[in-house]
Design a protein that fits this description.
This protein has 301 residues and is an all-alpha fold. The chain is built from 12 helices and no strands.
Length: 301
């Protein structure tokens, strides 16, 4: 088998395993938590369609999904990281299979960067799944500002790309270390796409090679991270299913139209929306702190 064939087979097997474990763990969780409805609403499906359509264009889905969840108030802030990872897993699998099949990239670079992202996500999910609501709000607020900055840097082309399809030696070490950190940040709800494209360009690689690297990294790391969120119940089932149901067809449609749609204007819109969401997250964290301090003062009195 070729290296690409092994990657395809591994991706499909991993996602089948995730699907089975998701059902098993969620059924246990539903009995334990006695939750009500589980079918996604039309709004959840619409969010999944729009954000994954943008994702296939290379804009990223996490920041835009976070913004829509925050605006619509359909997912509690502390459940957003888990919902993003669980709900976008299967659409990202479709993106990874398409990009790995079509874009030429050095397999050693691809495989090692994917492995690094998975390791980072596994460790990060274990930490984030135990964080309190206010800590998640602060973390997401700060990192959303960083995400907006990164997208703006991409738009302004401040980091020129190269022509290489892979790296070696010390440069490969930097690539692996960078993707490890990006994988860990994914579990806090910060998308890997935009920062990974900048990392690839900074290493002197062709920006096109970022697509199989970033999509492959996400497709492998998201099932690993998602199972930790599902196991702890730190996600919204209805919203995650909506992202999945709306996301997979959106990826396939975007793949057919990607050559005809200029995403630059949409990316500037995403920057503005992400900044607004970051401010909203930090304001929510500030209100949470004020409420906690008020309750503490009442208890003391």
């Amino acid at each position: 088998m070729t290296a690409k064939a092994v990657l395809f087979a591994s991706l499909i097997l991993l996602c089948l395993y995730f699907a089975v474990r998701w059902v098993v763990l969620e059924r246990r969780g539903l009995r334990a938590r006695s939750q009500g409805r589980w079918l996604p609403s039309g709004g959840h499906v619409a969010i999944g369609f729009v954000t994954n359509f943008l994702d296939m264009l290379g804009i990223g889905s996490f920041a835009s999904t976070t913004s829509l969840f925050k605006f619509s108030r359909t997912v509690d802030d502390e459940d957003i990281p888990g919902t993003l990872n669980v709900g976008h897993t299967f659409p990202t699998l479709a993106e990874a299979l398409i990009s790995i099949a079509l874009v030429t990239v050095d397999m050693k670079t691809l495989v090692t960067m994917i492995a690094a992202a998975v390791a980072g996500a596994y460790l990060g999910a274990g930490v984030v799944a135990r964080w309190p609501k206010r800590k998640i709000q602060i973390g997401m607020g700060v990192l959303l500002f960083a995400a907006a900055t990164i997208i703006a840097v991409r738009q302004l082309k401040l980091v020129p790309g190269g022509t290489a399809i892979g790296v070696d030696g010390a440069m490969l070490g930097l690539a692996v270390a960078g993707n490890f950190v990006l994988g860990a940040l994914m579990t806090l709800g910060i998308g890997l796409f935009a920062p990974c494209m900048i990392l690839i360009s900074a290493l002197g690689m062709n920006p096109k090679t970022a697509f199989p690297i970033m999509m492959g990294s996400c497709a492998f790391l998201m099932p690993v991270a998602s199972l930790r969120f599902v196991g702890t119940g730190r996600y919204n089932l209805r919203a995650a299913l909506g992202l999945t149901v709306g996301g997979v067809p959106a990826v396939l449609i975007a793949f057919r139209l990607v050559k005809e749609l200029p995403p630059r204007a949409m990316q500037w819109l995403v920057v503005a929306v992400v900044i607004y969401t970051a401010i909203a997250m930090l304001r929510s964290a500030s209100r949470s702190r004020a409420v906690t301090e008020l309750e503490s003062s009442r208890d003391l009195s």
